[in-house]
Amino acid sequence: MRHLFPLCLVALASAQPAAATELCVGGPRDQWLSKDEVAEIVTEMGYGTDEYMLMIEDGCLEAKLIHEGQRIEIYLEPITGELVQVKTD
Length: 89
Prior knowledge:
By secondary structure, this protein is of the alpha+beta class. The protein is built from 2 helices and 4 strands; from the N terminus they run H-H-E-E-E-E. The protein is globular, with a radius of gyration of 20 Å.
């Protein structure tokens, strides 16, 4: 039993965490869409942009807003504006 504890420590020390993957490819920041361009895309999707937050998450531009009482998170490729993911509560 005494030999099991050191083996567990070695196994834990050698374990590598899974590599985090970015949702979006990204690219040079000077080529990213502006807030106005993101607002235009979000509006074309049918969401109001009177009040929304623009953030960066997982390499994407993320627009957070409330639509019809529901929280919406829209993830876009920062250069092309391609829709990557929409999350709702």
